[in-house]
Write a structure and sequence with these properties.
CATH superfamily of the largest domain: NAD(P)-binding Rossmann-like Domain
Number of domains: 2
CATH architecture of the largest domain: 3-Layer(aba) Sandwich
Shape: globular
Helix content: 25-40%
Strand order of the largest sheet: 1-11-8-7-5-6
Largest sheet: 6 strands, parallel
Radius of gyration: 19 Å
Mean pLDDT: 95
CATH topology of the largest domain: Rossmann fold
CATH class of the largest domain: Alpha Beta
Distance between the termini: 43 Å
Structural class: alpha/beta
Low-confidence stretches: none
Number of helices: 10
Amino acid sequence: MTILDGKNTALLIQDEIAQEVQTRIQAGKKKPHLAAILVGNDTPSQTYVNGKVEACKRVGFDSTLIHLDENISEENLLLEIQKLNENPQIDGFIVQLPLPKYINVDNVIKHIHPDKDVDGFHPENVGKMNKNQPCYISATPLGILKLLEKYEIQTSGKHCVVVGRSQIVGSPMSILMARNEKIGNCTVTLCHSKTPNLAEFTMQADILVVAIGIPNLITKDMVKEGAIVIDVGINRVEDATKKQGFRLVGDVDYTETAPKCSFITPVPGGVGPMTITALLYNTLLACKWHKD
């Protein structure tokens, strides 16, 4: 069993990005600039955005964090988005999710200019991904592709089962794994919370991607011997032995399932670091596509 180390893989890719940024600067080209809008004081969101800011520093990007009041109106949030759309110094930006419940997330995403939508959520980028045209691919699916690529995992002809149908991970992942690409060419089955007899499908998976948000849903008896398991879930479960009163677990019961797998991602330290790195990759693309 091999652990798919997202943390170290992310650092390797970030080193490659940093080298390219230095080459750009030496050639007199623009330094990439990533901005993030954070609404409110949600602790996980703050931690995640701070991680993006630190990653920008590591690779030599400029970064801007716009922290808005949790009671900001949707209209004023859209005005902030428009400012970033019109700012020629900003190559790409994200609006950190989740947003307050009174804000229409789809409307917010539609107001981000597709050329600066480095999260890959805008309908235009989603449509281009479906058509296999140049676009920004959602950061988590892109991070998974790059993790599989770095470990030289062969996917062609394999059966990939994706558990979870979110627009951020599950749905795009099912499309990407079926594409005629180096990482892809799988036969793909997409399952979700309403799939009856889920184990019947997961047991068929050569590659199992789980992104459903249910702690330890996938147990060892639901995974076949030698499977490649990508656990996207990150869930807090109570743990009195921990200082913070909880621990992080994935959607897969790692301890019991790992011995059956040929490859598996840990939680934390698997997919999470790759997501931030994929966002940096998209921002570098944006700078090259629109400034070079």
